[in-house]
Amino acid sequence: MKYLQAIGYSEASWKTFTTGLREFFCWLEKQKILSLEKVSESDIENFYSYQQERPNNMTGGTLSESRITIHMYVIKLLFCYLEDTEQLQINPMSNLDYTHSYKRTRENLLSLADIEQLYKVCDTVKQRAILGIIYGCGLRRQEAAKLNVRDIHFKSGLLYVRQGKGGRKRTVPLNTTVLKDLKEYYYNERSGELNGNDADSIEAFMINKHGRRMRGRTYTLEVKKLIKAAGLNTQITLHHFRHAIATHLLESGMKTGHVKDFLGHQSIETTQTYLHLTTTQMKKTTSYGTETIPD
């Protein structure tokens, strides 16, 4: 912990990093790897794959990309420390990089032109619906995975997040384009995809290729396909879409307090971190980002 303090990390970061290290050590023990000197590059890659697949015992689904990236980042810090203090001759993470997204997580990597390009490369209404959920509605990965049919009211144009981060609830207004895409997916594509007879599949709004609830991992894969087709930065994650909509709404003139409610932030200070990202003159607006989604 003295090492973390020396390179500028706060006590709050120490606690977050401790969780990642604890999980890594438990995983190593299960693999019968009892010495850090025996950890290889392939072991690190296997742990990364395990993190992507293992269930989230707190919220259900799988771990968020940001959580996985933080875990991998602290493991890299650990091996850098051991290498710097000459306790380790070979650093198994020297050729691996899982830190890029973590370092840039507050940057606005997606411009309005990027969003428009993503919509242009969509081949299906389902893809447009996915963009509407993660960008137009600003839902977190787990919020998107938990989205049920009953959470979207087409008549009133509202989406309800019933269990957001920290168990908080919120109501998200749907602009015309997002509402149209979600409605078209529900009435024209979803019923043909539904294959599971279990209650969870029937309740789920977004359905995967197997006919069951779409999980966070599938959202990630679907968005990665669009990002590649659009020729955008492959380091973009689902969470960058939340950062993008936050910045774009602030740029459009929406008050910080309204953006806070839209995104479900616990404190306005979190929302204010996006203020320095805005690059255009703020203009008056009377709706939740009606002009930010291309038709």
TrEMBL record:
Keyword vocabulary terms for this entry: Cell cycle, Cell division, Chromosome partition, Cytoplasm, DNA integration, DNA recombination, DNA-binding
Molecular functions (GO terms): DNA binding
rRNA processing recorded as keyword: no
Classification via SUPFAM superfamilies: DNA breaking-rejoining enzymes
Domain Tyr recombinase residue range list: 104-287
Protein's name according to its UniProt entry: Integrase
Residues of the Core-binding (CB) domain: 1-83
Domain of life: Bacteria
Pfam families with a match to the protein in the record: Phage_integrase (PF00589)
Annotated transmembrane regions: none
One record GO biological process: chromosome segregation
Subcellular location as annotated: Cytoplasm
GO CC annotations, alphabetized: cytoplasm
